[in-house]
Specification:
The chain is an alpha/beta fold. The chain has nine helices and seven strands; from the N terminus they run H-E-H-E-H-E-H-E-H-H-E-H-E-H-H-E. The longest helix is centred in the middle third of the chain and has 29 residues.
């Protein structure tokens, strides 16, 4: 094995991926499995996560599914305990789970209410999942990693945790909901807090902040969004894989408390 292969090596590492049924999470599960990692794929969507894991297992990968409600502390603790019981330890947490703000025609109020009339219950639901859920997953992973005296965490944020959304690209009365920016900024605060809290304990915590990832968006939105990026396009989900492997492995051994932005130049203008 070459020196480069060694620093990126995740073979036999136990990696927990939350939000594993989503666009990013499912791609990350496959990528990590292909490196030889033992992947614990966790999500509240039981059928989707089971189908993903079955597909990966038929390809010979070491993947196990775990159903979890990340807004429930008992559910999160039970999940982490089950992972440690099954695999013996936990090396890496990749936290992707979040309430997806993609347009939902059955719940248009999420996208058309405007800030002044944004429903409190939607805000609270999003905070429970996006921030409290992140806190619980990080806390339980940290509990195990502190006992092991080692561990790595990668928390998925967003460019909208770094800069505000440009609401002009959301046409026809739609808008990016406030909970998304606030919760993604909160992820960055949580990352820095936990990184500093575990200073000197061999636990590294970093964030990955993607720009817009193409996922069957309307052509008009794709054009508007792309015009705001230096590369003049949205990302393909596969283009986050290199950043993930860098942050999850020893290739980033001198990084903690950092935010890696992968946005096609959106925030560089």
């Amino acid at each position: 094995m070459s020196k480069v292969e060694q620093v990126f090596d995740l073979h036999e590492k136990v990696v927990l991926v939350t939000g594993a049924a989503g666009l990013v999470g499912s791609d990350f599960c496959k990528t990590l499995a292909e490196t030889g990692a033992k992947v614990a794929a966790a999500d509240i969507q039981e059928q989707k996560i089971s189908a993903l894991v079955r597909n990966l297992q038929t390809q010979g990968f070491q993947v196990q599914d775990f159903t979890v409600d990340i807004a429930d502390q008992n559910s999160v603790r039970n999940m982490v305990d089950q992972i440690v019981s099954r695999f013996g330890h936990l090396d890496v947490l990749v936290h992707c789970a979040a309430l997806d703000p993609k347009f939902d025609r059955e719940n248009q109020q999420r996208h058309t209410a405007g800030f002044e009339n944004f429903p409190l219950e939607l805000w609270q639901q999003a905070m429970d999942i996006n921030l409290t859920g992140a806190f619980l997953c990080v806390r339980e992973a940290a509990r195990v990693m502190a006992e092991q005296k080692k561990g790595v965490m990668v928390l998925v944020s967003s460019i909208y945790g770094v800069v505000a959304p440009d609401q002009r690209i959301y046409q026809h009365g739609l808008f990016k909901p406030p909970y998304y920016s606030v919760s993604k900024a909160g992820i960055l605060g949580l990352m820095r807090y936990v990184a500093s809290y575990y200073a000197g304990q061999n636990i590294r915590v970093n964030a990955l902040s993607p720009g817009g990832i193409y996922n069957d968006h309307a052509e008009e939105f794709v054009r508007e969004y792309s015009s705001h990026t230096i590369l003049n396009r949205m990302a393909n989900v596969s283009e986050l894989e290199g950043a993930l492997l860098f942050l999850a492995s020893d290739a980033s051994s001198y990084m903690t408390g950092a935010n890696l932005v992968v946005d096609g130049g959106w925030t560089a203008w």
